[in-house]
Every structure is written in C-alpha cells, then in structure tokens.
Amino acid sequence: MPYVVTLGWRGRPTRGEPAELLKALGPLSPRFQPRLGARRVHTASYLDTADWRLRRGGLELTHEGASGPGSLVLAPHSVKLTEPPVWPARIEALPGGELRDAIATAVGVRALAPKIRSRTVVREIVLCDGEGEETARLRWAEAGTLHPVRKPPLVRVTVLAAPGRRRDAKWVARTLLSGEDFEPADAVGYDQLLDACGLPGETGRYAITPGMPADAAVATALLGFAEAITSNVEGTVDDVDPEFLHDLRVAVRRTRSLLKVAGDVLPGNLAARFAPRFAELGELTTPTRDLDVYLLEFDALADSLVAGAPEDLAPFAEHLRRRRDAERKILVRGLRAQRFARLMESWRAALSGVVAAPDRHSTVDDLTAERLRRITKRVIRRAAAITPESPAEDVHALRKRAKELRYALEVFQPVRPADRGALKELKRLQDVLGAFQDGEVQSTKLRAYAQELLDAGLASAPTLLAMGELLGGFARRERAARAELTGALARFLAQTRPVASASGR
C-alpha cells in the first residue's frame, strides 16, 4: 500500500506563500530540497436542504467553481453546468442524469442551498534528494470557510511517498512531527468545516429534563416551538419549498396542543391570552398548506387516471395554482405584519421570564405523570368506542385527541422514556386515522373545486369526468382506511392500556 499520512500545522496560515512554506519545511533541509508547484485555489459550496437530508443520508453534494457556471459534484458523479446556479433550487432545477437521480429521493420536495462555502489554497511540494530524485510529495492545503461565517483556515499537510521511497517519506513525517509546529491530524472534510462553523447547530437547547419546575419545563418546550415557527418564516415567505410552511404549521400545532394540555401551569393567564392568537395563526396557514398538498400529489393523481387522460386535468391544475397564489398573498401579508412580529416577540419574552423565575412547588415529573395519565385514558376511551359503523365525526375527534397525546408523549419523553412503545403504536394509528380523514377531506374539497370550475365556465366535460374518477379514488382510500382502522385500534389498545393502568397505580 502507498504510504500516506496527514499532519496538522499549528502555525499561522501561510496562504501558500513560498517564503512561509520554505520556512515551515526548514527541518527537512539539507537532506531534502523542496520544489514548489503552482499555487491553486479551490472553492466549493456544500449543498443540503434546510433539514440536512443529504447529510443524514450520507451524501455530500458540492458546487465547485469560484466564477462561471461551475460543476456539481457527488462522487463519483460530476456535472458541468451551462449557467450559474441560483440557490436555493429544487431538484427539478438541476440537470437530469445520474447525479440528480442519486439525490432525488433524499431531497424530495425540499430546496438545496449552500450550507458552507469554502476556499482552499493548495500547493504541491516535491521533496528531492541530493541527486535531484523525488523522494516524497507534500500537499499543503489551507481550507477556510467564507459562508455562513468566515473562519481561519484549517491547515493540513499530506505526505505521500514516491515509488520505492517509503522509508524517506516516513523520515519526513517523523522529522516534521518532532518539532512544535506539526501534529497528527485527519484531513479536512465537510464535517471539520461544519464543526468550525458550529453547524448543524445546537441540539437539545429546548429539551426538558427530569426534576425541572413544571412551569419552566412547559415554557422551555414552548420556546423550542417558537424558535421553529420563526426560523421557518423566511423560507415560507420566499416560497423556497413547501416544507417550510409545513414545519411552521407543525410548530404552531404543537404550541396549541401543549397550551391545551399543560398551559394552566404557566403563571397568570398566559395560556388564555396567547392560545387564541396561535389559533389565528393556524387558520392563516391552513389554506396554502392544503393547496400545497394537493399540488404535490397532482402528478401522481393525474397518472392514476384510467378512463381519463392526465391532460384532462390541466384546467383543474391551473385553478389550484391560481387559488394557491391568492391564498399565499394573504399568508405572506400575515407573516410580514407587525401583529405577527409582536406576537412572537411578546410570547418569547413571556416564556423566557417563566424559565428565569420558575415556580418550584411542582416538578415536570409530577406534571408528566398526571397529564399523560389523563390524556391517555381519554384517548383509550374514545378509541374503544369506535366501531366500523361509527360516524366520521367520531373518527376525526379521536384523531385530534390522538394527536394531542402524541405531542405530549414527545414533549415529555425525556421524563418518561418508557412510553416509547406506546408512542410508536400511536404513530401507526395516526397514519390510519390521517388516511381516513384525507380521503374524506379531499373528496369534499374536490366537489367544491369542481363547482368553482363550473361557476367560472372553466370546466369541460373531460375535465369533470376526470375529476369524478379522482373522486372515486378518494372514496376507495377512505373505505380502505376505515377497514384498516379496526386492526390499528386493537393494536393500539393492546399496547397502551397496560401502560395507562400501570401509570394509574
């Protein structure tokens, strides 16, 4: 195997200047003479989604090139671009081919954008013996970040032995390490640059811990949801990708649910004051998200047609896009309004005050035991009452209560880790309940959309027939979910009843 070893340089970055490099390599003379190659500068932007989907999937995508179109690189694939990219960009904006196919599943509907932009200065240095023959080659590389923050370069020197000169290369490495300026190190990669920039960021900043005062624990969790709301506003307003709005809505729902479940432990009338405002925020975001979901599924729905053709649904698709444009304008106005900014500012200030001066008379442990017992029994009672003949309203009510229980289990999991089994079965039940509601809701909305098209004179006979075929598909989904519900309820009750009984003793 070829001899390769990487060293770290403790001294100041040299920027590849010859005099500085020769000074750093002084311990190698007079045995070896360095011959410096050309100074090269390499720039790269490491791309990922807002929620790090590529990194979580073990994929490293870069855009390389300081000017001009540059190239996209995902080893072993490389694609030269014909024009400079505009970030953020969704998957369909990338050139088709193997590289795009390799990341498409991981990226999904999210947009890609630079997480880190780096600049690396490199010089190849050939070490020659007294007869002018190459004994080893050094790669001096200084990698620093330009975005999101400027960080000093991490300097690495890679020693590679020339053929048949392994012993000489080992001497070079030992000699450099014997001084004070070099140390063993790993090569600089994406992870090292992320660490230098403090990314992906703090985890567990808003986590609750056993023994916390109950009001401080609830306020801490709510602060985490507030952070999620505000961090997704910009992406929602700029329409970067539909998941920003989805994540914002989830944070709003979690806020409303926790206020309902445990808001009474907050001082004064804090929960009563703010709950209606978050209900308004939920209502503001609903129409655009509903249309997003419809449009995200639209191609698959069109391809599912048997009697009709996908092009028959073109007027319907255009109608949905117009509706979304109108609803998005309302949403953006609401998120840009001072009313929303004041809401989040006063909400975070109030919660921070609770965390700073908590009431220590009760702990989150006591709160968790009491509230989870109460909510679990309520969900069990509703679940046990559901039969194949139960009206849709009862199924929807169970879905809402199940969602409250799920959010509570997730928030209080650090205090009650033993409930993970119940949470897992609850998520499965929610999937079935969600499929049932989606089938019914989509059927109802599809009828309304058809009427809107008719009223506007935009619906042809083929379009209405194709929409009717979609309606039949939604009805089948609803029936399938209803049939699956009985088994899902039985599994959930078998898993959850023992936990509820044990916590009640």
How does this structure look, described?
With 505 residues, the chain is of the alpha+beta class. The protein has 15 helices and 10 strands. It has helices at 18-24, 53-56, 98-107, 166-178, 190-197, 214-231, 233-237, 242-262, 270-303, 314-336, 338-356, 364-385, 392-411, 420-455, 461-504, and strands spanning 4-9, 33-48, 61-64, 71-74, 77-80, 89-90, 111-128, 134-147, 151-161, 182-184. Strands 1, 2, 3, 4, 5, 6, 7, 8, 9 and 10 form a 10-stranded antiparallel β-sheet that branches. It is globular and about 95 Å long. The mean pLDDT is 93. This is CHAD domain-containing protein. Pfam families: CHAD (PF05235).
Brief digest:
With 505 residues, the protein is of the alpha+beta class. The longest helix has 44 residues, at 461-504. It has helices at residues 18-24, 53-56, 98-107, 166-178, 190-197, 214-231, 233-237, 242-262, 270-303, 314-336, 338-356, 364-385, 392-411, 420-455, 461-504, and strands spanning 4-9, 33-48, 61-64, 71-74, 77-80, 89-90, 111-128, 134-147, 151-161, 182-184.
